[in-house]
UniProtKB/TrEMBL annotation:
All residue ranges annotated as the HD domain in the record: 286-427
Key words of the record: Coiled coil, Magnesium, Metal-binding, Nucleotide-binding, Nucleotidyltransferase, Transferase, tRNA processing
The protein's required cofactors: Mg(2+)
Name listed for the protein in its UniProt record: CCA tRNA nucleotidyltransferase
Coiled coil spans: 421-448
CDD domains in the cross-refs: HDc, NT_ClassII-CCAase
Domain of life: Bacteria
Residue spans crossing the bilayer: none
One Pfam family named in its UniProt record: PolyA_pol_RNAbd
Annotated organism of origin: Cellulomonas fengjieae
Amino acid sequence: MPSLDPPVSPELPDPSAALVALQKRALSVLAALPPDALELGELFRAAGHELALVGGPVRDAFLGRSSADLDFTTSADPDQTQAILARWGDAHWDIGKEFGTIGARRFAGRRASLAQDVVVEVTTYRSDEYDPTSRKPQVAFGDSLEGDLSRRDFTVNSMAVRVPDLTFVDPFDGLTDLAAGVLRTPVDPRQSFDDDPLRMMRAARFAAQLGFAVDPAAREAIVEMADRIAIVSAERVRDELSKLLLSVQPRTGLEVLVDTGLAQHVLPELPALRLEIDEHHRHKDVYEHSLMVLDKAIALETGPDGAVPGPDLVLRLAALLHDIGKPRTRRFEEGGGVSFHHHEMVGAKLVAKRLKELRFDKATVQAVARLTELHLRFHGYGEGAWTDSAVRRYVTDAGPLLERLHRLTRSDCTTRNVRKAAQLSAAYDDLEQRIARLREQEELSSIRPDLDGTQIMAILDLPPGREVGEAYKYLLELRMERGPLGPDAAREELLSWWAARS
């Protein structure tokens, strides 16, 4: 395999130990590239075209990660690429053809040598630029690998490996930035962010995913150009925000969004949580509290077979946004106190509005809003015993969100008072134990009245209609209050209710 040594100019020091470690990792990962990928390089070369592995797969190779999904760039135009991939793959698609991208897949089941499917996307050398008045990027095809790399978001994603000969190409010293953990643009950051403003969001996302710092020049450009993100479609912003939140350490990326002013344009409710702290320190920093809740909620996610497999977007959104109603409801009380009455209800409406504007799907919007609305329900449990009826309502109101609500409520305790934190934790332990006991006795997850609609109509001699619904609701309330009654007792209660109503 050709050497992966980076180019060293006279003014640069010898490669650091970090660089050497990266090179060793990359050698092992690239040496394990599927032969099918190298075969694809041979096909492009035989047709007179260049092909190079590029972007995330190359970056991840240096970080010791491999992927079955491989991104390539080529000198071939989309029609030429499609013709080659049709011969190479078991399936291919042209859904991204207008942007120069053709995809293909080789199935492991058809080849004993493949442990898993090999998926490739091949994109013609290109650049994406925005018209100041348009939300859609304009695509222009390029004519060289180096030119294509210059138009990518960050130097750590501007490295390539030509195939099939595995020649390493790093015209912007991305390997050095990778070793240093820095996100730097391959060209002037103002030009880069002007060409595609979404790259500013990607800076925050990669900071969260990789734990890298944003280069000072790039950070300064984001501060100056943050308002340009407004021309990017809500769907693309949503996708970047979701990737950020699903990363290993989303706090890092969220801090980039807030500190640079980007959040003011894409999620303004987040910086609004930075409530000024008065001289009496009558309330804690809600912004910092929300980030702490997010960190704690992530720690409570489970493995694939657990109740809330991580990373869980709904739980993370709810943890981050559960208190966004506080700025609207803050009141300074006599005697120096601060109140946020009904902030959970106000917050639920704000959450739904913002997530709809970001084009999140209906189920996600409803789930995050509901968790926001319910996150205070537990408070007060430790001060006075809840009846079994209250516990039933808690479970029923949470419905399929109960396990997430458990984790959100526990995470919402960020007090530094060790005694108070222990009391809250013990109280919630007790609530969960009571839920478990009642669940064993009553099938809490599917509470229904003791009589169904058909039985109600037969007992009261009623046709389908509003009165049957009212009777059903009465029996459901009775079931909540008193637990299972059995059909005979429920019939007597129904007849008494009907007689009194008549």
